[in-house]
Amino acid sequence: MAKKAGAKKVVAAGKGKYVYFFGGGKAEGNGKMKDVLGGKGAGLAEMSSTGVPVPPGFTVTTDVCRMYYLARKKFPAVAARQFKDAVARLQKVTGKKLGDMKKPLLVSVRSGAKFSMPGMMDTILNLGLNDHTTSAMARNSGNPRWAWDCYRRFIQMFGNVVLEMGKEVFEHQLTEVREKAGVKSDAEIPAESLQEVVARYKKLVKEKTGRDFPQDPFKQLEMSRDAVFRSWMNDRAIYYRKQNKIPDDIGTAVNVQSMVFGNMGDDCGTGVGFTRNPATGVKEFYGEYLLNAQGEDVVAGIRTPRHISNLANDMPRVAKQLKDITTKLEKHYRDTQDFEFTIEREKLFMLQTRTGKRTAQAAVAIAVQMVNEKLITKKDALMRVTPEQVEQLLHPVFDSTARRNAKVIAKGLPASPGSASGMAVFSADAAVEWAKDGKATILVRPETTPDDIHGMDAAQGILTARGGMTSHAAVVARGMGKCCVAGCESAKVDEHGKKFTVGDLTVGEGEWISLDGTTGEVLLGQLPTQEASLSGDFGIFMSWVDETKEIGVRANADIPRDAKVARGFGAEGIGLCRTEHMFFAADRLPHMVAMIMAETEEGRRAALANLLPFQREDFKGLLKEMAPYGVTIRFLDPPLHEFLPKREELLVEIAKMEAKGEGGAALDEKKKILARVQELHEFNPMLGLRGCRLGIMYPEITEMQSRAVFEAACELAREGVKTEPEIMIPLVGFPGELKSQLEIVHRVAKETMASAGLKVKYMVGTMIELPRAALVADQIAETAEFFSFGTNDLTQTTLGFSRDDAGKIIKKYREIGLFKDDPFATLDQTGVGQLVRMGVEKGRKTRPKLKVGICGEHGGDPESVHFCVRTGLNYVSCSPYRVPVARLAAAQAALGASEYSSK
Q1: With CB atoms 3.0 to 4.6 Å apart as the test, which of 40, 109, 355, 760 could cross-link to 713 if both were Cys?
Q2: Nearest to residue 2, comparing CAs of 65, 76, 55, 56?
């Protein structure tokens, strides 16, 4: 945990209130206190105060978590008295007491951070049981099986979470006893066999820890509370926060709540659900439950649960009450709710309500629905969908023809929509290792656990043999935007043998399979994909985005095909056309090489004359595709050696030719190219002869590119197509560099238009990618009509990091907290950002109406887009597939959204 940030919040808290009680129709907190109570605690408080049946309990605040870590994992004394008082109050309210032989108080201990982190932290149920209270409960209830089942569950959870023993050691003992008893499921294990399980578990604890399982309930509670705080910094929670950009220093709350039991018989049960379908967004009551079970059984995926619609047959009165309560909760919170419930002797208790995680498709559909239902405004809707979810909607889907012809080998539950193909792997670690080699994988598991988070992230999709639509695999996959098929019971997964079987078919590690997360089908082989169709609710939603955003969104595109894609995604022009990409095609590269090899200006001009028709057609296609929007064309930027063969390759080829005795013109030509490559060699070419320096050294290059632009614009004007080319001179650091290139551009423009008898509108500006350019932006703006911040190079030249070589350094810096984000992915606002602000301010001081944009990779990063809006840029430019992402980020920035407001 970041100590500085944590310390500030602790100081702000002071000696205040650290424990908040809820229950009996009252609560000391409320739903708006997520910062203090966490999402779960705030939900429990709000439900309690609105009359929802909630078992009483109390919440230890996130402040205490931060204090716990500052005190080197010791529970703060300032909160200890309040904690004891809350326990005493809970005993009084329930009429039960920890460790009591007649009415023992049993509690659950759960985590609950401000932002939902499903399955990432730990939970303990049935706390308060020991040898004596379990025996008493067995006698008093007349249901010894229930009492011993609760005790074995408690020891298993406590052993795993508090004592840090592996789950598998407990599962192994449970399996042995189940097989010995001759039953198929845990729910069928008789009481005497469960007593044997408890004895085995206690023996395991003694062997592992050297101590007996703790019998003092209050000691159990203290140890469990601290363990839940520790789980805030477990590997999977840290990974999840990093993945979802959740700060480490916000901490988690701990919720202590009196137990209600869903495992006392068939008139009891437990379940989880959503007020709307979190996979598709359909307005339907959605969820699952198990009879005679406790809450963890549903989400763990150990047993495949029943659809919530069946509850109306099993317990009609409870089903109606549950539907009524959750409908009211949705209206109260004005958002889809994810809820948990337990039924004890046909009495309903609500254990949680929170904003439901949903897929990108569902997020958009639900946002549009709720606006139409007048539950929320359009502005609210824009805050309900994250830019990352919009990006997920752009993912390709299976080619329809290939999909029809594919062999379906199994079918499970469509837990998270989308399409995924990959090679089957059977462990999270394998998925990560294969991903390092660039291999696409499908993670196949009996069921996933929170420990699989890194593998789920690395894989293209997830397939589980067990578990339902609200299992860990389903919930986490939906949050990640990953395709998931869950509960595929016909697939028998052998994780140790690295294979799964469906009937007579065996699929081993490394074999290709495909998942259709919309239908739940598992298909054999690798399927090709096609572009997703973006219409319906998405089109409506994006129209609201465009009504709200205050800056333009352009695309970085070099060919008409990309420009067409960008236009389809809503791009309002091209912010960066990299002309060098046009010279690498097979029919153009020889002319480019000839230009570089030419020893005279005449020779260069002859080669450039051959390139002119290609350039003209390129520009014409781009301008036409994007008309009437502006197209920013960056003149030649990279070092010339990039167009020639590599020095090492030439040396090898020459050596081979000489060894074979080959000579003549071919060998002479190779040696000539080698000499030119060596002549062009630079120790640091990215700071050498490139950008505007090429145009200054070889003005004929600038002339050819200018002529191609204006001839294309004139031809289109003759066809009645209105265009607006914007010529961008790269790598300017001195005002004189820009002036020298401007003279060429304006002269060629005048000549070309005079020859065509036409006038076309155009602009000339520069790319600000050197710190000096930002420092003297007021001088550069005397001649530049627009600025485009090339933040890729501006980041390199400001930080002194090479984007191509600094990956390992940046990774280490992020691990140890020196960098919050990769500065080449998210703009360094305090460093590079200051230069951008300075450039904008100085430039507009000279030219008040100066058009300013950004065309680096940061133009599609939501956090960087927010910065661009605050800084007053006219537009951002990004890759075509990130255009919708940038549009939404721009709209949310206009609404004043903070970085984490939509999580």
Answers
A1: 760
A2: 65
